[in-house]
Structure formats: structure tokens, C-alpha cells
Amino acid sequence: MTGRGEHPMTGLNDIYEILKDPAAYGRKLKGEGRRGIVGYFCSYTPEEIIYAAGAHPFRLFGSDDTIHLADAHFQSYCCSLVRGALEGALAGRLDFLDGVVFPHTCDSIQRLSDIWRMNVKGPFHLDVVLPVKLGGESSKTYMTDVLQRFRAELQARLGAEIGLEALRAAIGTFNRIRGYLSRLYEIKSEDPGLISGSDLHAIVKASMIMDRDRLLETLPRIVTELSDKKGQRKEPAGKRLVMAGGVCNHPDVYRFIEEAGGVVVGDDLCTGSRYFDGIVELNDDPIRAIADRYMTRSLCPAKHAGLFTRSDRIVDVVREKKALGVVFILLKFCDPHAFDYPYLKEALDRQGIPSLLLEVEDRLPSEGQLQTRFETFIEML
């Protein structure tokens, strides 16, 4: 499967239809009488708290349209995610949103928060200033306090009480989603030919947009369908690769990798495994439980929890997935990942793990150029 045409697998046609026009899907959800549609930009946004308020968390991925309105507010060297998101808001394409959440991540997202507040009228605006250093009891206490403040602000904005039972139910919902996504990644690693990289990435991306109850009907069916087919393919799927980086609206490079003789069997991506890594261990304080997960899940390079945490993580993923190399796909002008790359490459080099860097903007290089680069890299593995 390549992400095109009709899909025989359960639910994939609906998933691609949603991803074709997320804004239209957001308007449809709004018309169903939700308490609110709350947009967000980062996997450090506490979706459980939004969901417990009776609102719908809706991830924003930027825009595929030509950017011109946002250029009056951002320099050209800001990443296409923040420029594209602001473009969509200024053009009225995000008018279905009731609110937007800006977590404290990179400088560009923080500046987007300021510019959005001053120039986008309508949806409410909330900052979630999480700690950068994720280690030690003081960081956990600070993280918990920030999440409690977010809960109180969201209650006021939506006019909804966010009670402990609602929080526990929301945590259960998102834990189940994370469990199914984790299982899909395991199936992909165990038998890579069962599902294409394009289809798997589409499922993960749609999981951040779809009605979560509907999602929890679709994911088990996909997992069951793939599990029933395990072991039926005899031919090798290709040379095993891991993809790493932080591109949120990243282009479909899986098709080119697979046509070049490779297969992505694991990742360390913002809109990949980092999104669903770890579950929330329920305890007497659901907010602190959410904070605990953020302290222990796989790190974004905009956070810090040790000198070698990120490099150890990517080497472990390569070893666990029995991969032969790593493809870094980095968004141009993304400073956290740009600063992260040399140190990660050095760690891979020390372990004798080959890597390829692909830096992209909101548009891919030509297909011929991409194909040649992937073929050359995969042939040398």
C-alpha cells in the first residue's frame, strides 16, 4: 500500500479522507455539538485534560498552502510549521477552533504564541509553560503545578468542570490509544510487509485529529486484521531502517524508501513514537500521573534529562528493531533538531550505524533526487 487509491484495510479510507482536509473534519466535529475544539501544536500538550473537559484535542500540522499572510509577521528563516499554522489562522481556515494551546517547546512556537495572541481573533489562547529540565522531584512538582493551572484555566474558558473521575476516564482512553499504536509499531517491526510506512504514519497522524471514541473502534480492528495476517508473507520487505527527526507535517518519504529497497521499522519522531510512548500510571492524583509520564517518556530535543538520553534512545531503537541504518528527516530552520543532529550522528558513528540526513522544507526535493539519495544509501548498507 502506498497511501493512494482505495485501501482494503479496515478504516484506512476514512483515515486518508480525514487527513486530506483536517479543517473540514474539524468543522464536522464542531457541528456535532462538542463543548469545544481545542487546537494544539506539540505532544507535550496534555490531551487528557482537554478531553476530560468534554472538548476535542485537535493537533495542528501547519499548512500545505502557499504562505504569504504569515510572512508579514515571521522572518523567512522561521520553520514552515509555525508559518503555515499562522497562515491558516489568518486566512480563516482554522475558524472552527474554540481555543489553541501553546506548550513551552522551541523558540518559534513561543513566538508564534505571542503573534497569535495579538493577531488571531476568536479562539481563546492558553500557554502551558512546562519545565525544560525533566529530572528530579522539583521538576516533577513544577510540572504538576503547571498542569493544575492549565486545568483551572481550561475550566474557566470552556465553562466545564474537569473532575477526577472525568480525568481518570480520559487517561484510560488515551492509554488504550497508546497501547494500540504501540502494538501497530510492534507488528510493523515483526513483519514489515504487512503495512506500508505511509499507512502506518497516516494512522498515527489521524490519531491526533480523529474523534477518539471512533478511533478506539478503528484501531482494534486494524490491529486484529494485521495480527491475523502475520507470517503469511515469505519475501523480505527490504533493508530495515529507523527514521528520526521532528517534522510534524512531514512528507511521505516512505514510498521512496520502500521503492529503493528499504523499510522503516521504527522511529524517533515527534509525530511518531514520541507521541504515544509510555502510558499514564493511574494513582490518587491524575494530574500528577500525567506529569509522571511526561517526565519519563522519550524526550524531545527541546527538553533535557541527561547528557546522553537522546543518543542512548536512538541507538537502543536501532538495536531493538535490528535496523541497519537511520534516516534523519529534519525540517529546515528547526533549531532544536538541528542542534541535536551532530551529537546523534556522532553517537551512531561510534556504534558503526550508518545514517542519512534529509533536510526538507514544506516541499520535498524532486522525486528523482530523493530516489537517487535513498537508493545510494540503502545499497551501501
Give a structural overview.
With 381 residues, the chain is α/β, with parallel strands linked by helices. Helices cover 50% and strands 12% of the residues. The strands form 2 sheets. It has a 4-stranded parallel sheet, with helices on both faces. The chain has a 4-stranded parallel sheet with strand order 6-5-7-8. The longest helix has 27 residues, at 164-190. The relative contact order is 0.13.
Quick structural gist:
This protein has 381 residues and is α/β, with parallel strands linked by helices.
Task: Please give the structural blueprint.
Layout (H helix, E strand, L loop, with lengths): L11 H9 L1 H10 L5 E4 L6 H6 L3 E4 L20 H11 L8 E5 L3 H13 L4 E5 L8 H22 L5 H27 L6 H11 L4 H18 L9 E7 L8 H6 L2 E8 L3 H4 L9 H11 L12 H12 L4 E7 L3 H16 L4 E6 L6 H14 L1
Helix pairs in contact: 1-8, 4-5, 6-12, 7-8, 7-9, 13-14
Q: If helices are DSSP runs of H or I spanning 4 or more residues, what is the number of helices? A: 15
- How much β-strand is present in the residues? 5-15%
**C-alpha end-to-end distance:** 24 Å
Q: Roughly how much helix do the residues carry, as a percent range?
A: 40-55%
Structural class: alpha/beta
Uncertain segments: none
- Per DSSP E runs of 2 or more residues, the count of β-strands stands at 8
Q: Tell me the radius of gyration.
A: 20 Å
Morphology call: globular
Order of helices and strands: HHEHEHEHEHHHHEHEHHHEHEH
Major sheet strand order: 2-1-3-4
| Average pLDDT score | 91
Please describe the biggest sheet, giving its number of strands, its sense, and whether it closes into a barrel: 4 strands, parallel
